[in-house]
Amino acid sequence: MLIEERLEKEKKIIEENKSVTIESLAETLGVSKDTIRRDLMKLEKKNVIRRIHGGAVLASKEALILNYSERANQENTIKEKIAEKTAKLVKDHSSVIFDSSTTVEAVIPKLNGKSLKGITNSLTHAILLSKNERTSVSVLPGKLNNKQLFLYGADTVDKIRQYSVDYTLLGVFAISEKGLFIHTEEEGVVKRAMVQRGNKIIALADHSKIDTTGYFKICSLDEIDILVTDKMPELKFVESLAQNNVDIVVTEE
Prior knowledge:
- The chain has helices spanning 3-17, 22-29, 33-45, 68-73, 76-89, 102-107, 123-130, 154-160, 185-196, 235-243, and strands spanning 19-21, 49-52, 55-58, 94-98, 116-120, 135-139, 143-144, 151-152, 165-171, 174-176, 179-182, 198-204, 216-219, 226-229, 247-250.
- The longest helix has 15 residues, at 3-17.
- Helix 7 (123-130) links the parallel strand 5 (116-120) and strand 6.
- The strands form four sheets. Strands 6-5-4-9-12-14-15 form a seven-stranded parallel beta sheet, sandwiched between helices.
- It is of the alpha/beta class.
- It folds into two domains: 3-61, Arc Repressor Mutant, subunit A (Orthogonal Bundle); 68-250, Rossmann fold (3-Layer(aba) Sandwich), CATH 3.40.50.1360.
- The mean pLDDT is 90.
- The N and C termini lie far apart (49 Å).
- 39% of the residues lie in helices and 25% in strands.
- The protein is elongated, with a radius of gyration of 21 Å.
């Protein structure tokens, strides 16, 4: 079997199974484990797969990491629909923690007219919130991430712990049956603190974020109350949400 032919077969097997072990690939293709290891290195360089201990997973299982401007421009129509649904869930005369995600940012203009106490670690969100005359804005302290434009660190987390709010709006980087994830610990610990201080946690995630993972776990599914998304997820994940008492709101009618 030619190398390219074998690589193509390996790629197809991983795509069909989402993940695979070196041992199972070696047995299926009738080659040594060392050969499979070398093949996986080639596929990883092509960004087809991501190697893990003892095997590999599809590269797409790891949610994409984008800077602020890329995130702000991504799937704007979907974000707007999710934002509209989310804004309807937030009652007038409420206190709300807004995380630094661009999906949460899209919610802010749709809350205009409501009397709110807003707390955020995002400079851009704070500016948007200030445009609503009926909203008071508290900006959390901390170190500034120059690319993502959010504040983070021990001071940020300590300040969050002083609040007890009606809602936490949480933009989701990655979500699966195992919980909610983010790609950096520095942002993850801030989001985790935000989850702990909200009476009702509303998570916002388009369909591309579902059944993906990240480096740092923010919380388990049972720590959120509502998931707002644009498409109905696969049945297995919907069942996991129900088992963890998470309501799902879908923008598609």
